[in-house]
Design a protein that fits this description.
It is found in: Cell membrane. It comes from Kitasatospora indigofera. This is ABC transporter permease. By secondary structure, this protein is an all-alpha fold. The chain has a single domain, classed as MetI-like (MetI-like fold, Orthogonal Bundle), CATH 1.10.3720. Helix 2 crosses helix 14, helix 6 packs across helix 8 and helix 6 packs across helix 12.
């Protein structure tokens, strides 16, 4: 019996004219494929919680019965505007933000200017700048709470040793806000100093040489060469610090250990107020409304800083 075998003819290769469009489409789609994981994670953990929080803020939701939602529209927002504790938290957020951001950025700029020189052991000092930032918020705040203690605090002991009256750093309004601001300033000054240092090292050294040849002192070089060269970096740190001050939560919560921000809410921030509404009073809908107010406030502050920076750039031109 004869066995017959059939062989398939090889598949003809696609002509070059057909392969080129496929290669073009693949090369165009490749960047989107690389970016797809970011957008998937952003949609899952960023965009969806933001939109869901806005949805919850339009309902009456209690923590004990979180599955039961009653539509109330903008009632949660109108109640916020009528609540004096909300305005108190907003005012405290602004004052603590100013008390922590302004000294923090000024000291960071000065430290970066010193580290920009050829100092002995400057690598050690640069690493040491990040140590407060790497420290836990809880550990740092608890240590500062002990330092600012009314009866046995180190700071009041130093004041009494020179004949000054002790200060109640947790009950007095301005003193408690200064205490919370001190924790924030201590943690973030070194971080911003390293950002300024990176910006300073990008400024051409020829500008300093030209200024020195013209007889400019180091102080004038700092004012007329370093600061203008760091303007984009300074704007960036101002925006980031402003956003951080608006979201301030851990330091005031642990400073005395309650969500009320002191016995008279003297240093309660918007973050603490949101936490108190949601997890102390169980009003999740109102807490969601506070969260969206904070988000809109951050957007407005960022737009204001961007407008100021754009106007400054136009005037410089």
């Amino acid at each position: 019996m004869a066995i017959t075998t059939t062989t398939r003819s090889p598949r003809p290769a696609a002509p070059a004219a057909e392969r080129r469009p496929r290669a073009r489409r693949a090369s165009r789609a490749a960047p989107y494929g690389y970016l797809a994981p970011f957008f998937v994670l952003f949609a899952a953990f960023g965009l969806f919680p933001l939109l869901y929080t806005a949805y919850v803020s339009l309902h009456r939701v209690e923590l004990q019965t979180s599955q039961q939602m009653d539509w109330v529209g903008f009632q949660n927002y109108t109640r916020l505007l009528e609540d004096p504790f909300f305005w108190n938290a907003l005012r405290n957020t602004f004052t603590i933000g100013v008390l922590s951001t302004v000294p923090q950025l000024v000291m960071a700029l000065g430290l970066a200017h010193l580290l920009n020189y050829k100092l002995r052991g400057r690598t050690f000092f640069r690493v040491a700048m990040l140590m407060p930032y790497a420290t836990s918020v809880a550990a740092a705040t608890l240590v500062f709470a002990q330092l600012f203690g009314r009866d046995y605090g180190l700071l009041n002991w130093a004041l009494s040793s020179v004949g000054l009256n002790p200060v109640d750093w947790q009950a007095d309004t301005w003193a408690s806000q200064i205490g919370v601001s001190a924790v924030v300033t201590w943690r973030w000054t070194g971080y911003n100093a390293l950002i300024y240092l990176a910006g300073m090292q990008a400024i051409p050294h020829e500008l300093y040489e030209s200024a020195a040849m013209d007889g400019a002192s180091r102080w004038k070089q700092f004012l007329h060469v370093t600061v203008p060269g760091l303007r984009p970096t300074i704007i960036f740190t101002v925006v980031v610090s402003t956003i951080g001050a608006t979201q301030l939560f851990g330091e005031p919560l642990l400073y005395e250990g309650n969500a009320g921000g002191g016995i008279s809410h003297q240093y309660q921030t918007l973050g603490l107020y949101m936490y108190e509404q949601g997890w102390s009073f169980f009003h999740l809908g109102r807490a969601a409304a506070v969260a969206w107010v904070m988000f809109l406030l951050i957007v407005l502050l960022a737009l204001a800083n961007a407008a100021i920076a754009a106007r400054r750039n136009r005037t410089d031109r």
